[in-house]
Amino acid sequence: MKLLSFFPNKNNMEHFNHSWGDVSSYIDGLGLDGIETMIGTYHPTSYLEGAPVRGLHLMYFPTWLDFWREDHEALIENFGSSERVERYFGGMKRDLLIDHYKKEFENARELGVEYMVFHVSHVNPRDIFTFTHDYTSREVIEAAVELINEVFKGEGPALLLENLFWPGLDLRSNEDTRYLLNSINYRNKGILLDTSHLICTNKDISTFDEGAEYILDKLESMGELTKYIRGIHLNASTPGPYLKQDFSHKLRKWEEADSLDQFHIEGEHIKNIDTHSVFESHKVREILDRVPWEYLTLELASKDVAELTENVKKQLLFLEEL
């Protein structure tokens, strides 16, 4: 199943006259089978009535580990004030995270989607500039397992765990990946491989072909764990030149900014690392041949629908033999 990552923001929906029928016709015209989307707390499930939704991307809180641990001192250090913590999470109690994801799980079942996407990752804001962490991937994974086992119970759509390039599921440790999968009680589970995120774990990649080779090497080293890769977010980055910069000036600018400007500085920085570009490599097909994927989602950055269409068509050229 080939899908498009499509979010129902104002500009996108205005382009399609706020009609899911028009969106469906657009998806059909591209030769795709539907969309993966996110509604989080932004829309009720009724908003997606008639939408060709096959996958639901659950909301991601990038900085959540201390909230889960209820370490208020660390939270204040990272967020600046309890008020900012409450704006971010809706309060100060970890049960809020459980309740949030229980609601999203309920939404996924109500919508009848085939899969859900959950990020197993955590990063403190300043660490995105320093790339130093006082928490390990295993610690993040252990906390994520606690949360997941509180939320996802019984039957439901596949829970696909997405890799990122911060501590957590980054696919660099088979031991951590195996521990995560074995520790989750929910039976209908698997991995969602984000190709760009995996590339972004390597500061030496400066071309798409280098990125493809790196992914192929990682898949080879994963061995039998590749059988759990049920979904793919197909996109790419060439992060090497950017990641080799000194970010001390960006960190100072971020430290001196107010909360709104900090948010914009963080966003710009992340987009420079993880560009969500078209994966322009003929080795893409080899990557897809290595894993038993069920869902292939084109997750491509674009400023508008016209650019999105151009990028999708360009990416599909590299999938012609599928």
From TrEMBL:
Key words of the record: Endonuclease, Hydrolase, Nuclease
Species per Swiss-Prot/TrEMBL record: Propionigenium maris DSM 9537
GO terms, molecular function: endonuclease activity
Transmembrane regions: none
Protein's name in the database: Endonuclease
Organism ancestry: Bacteria, Fusobacteriati, Fusobacteriota, Fusobacteriia, Fusobacteriales
Pfam families: AP_endonuc_2
InterPro entries: Xyl_isomerase-like_sf, Xyl_isomerase-like_TIM-brl
Chain ranges of the Xylose isomerase-like TIM barrel domain: 94-320
Origin: domain of life: Bacteria
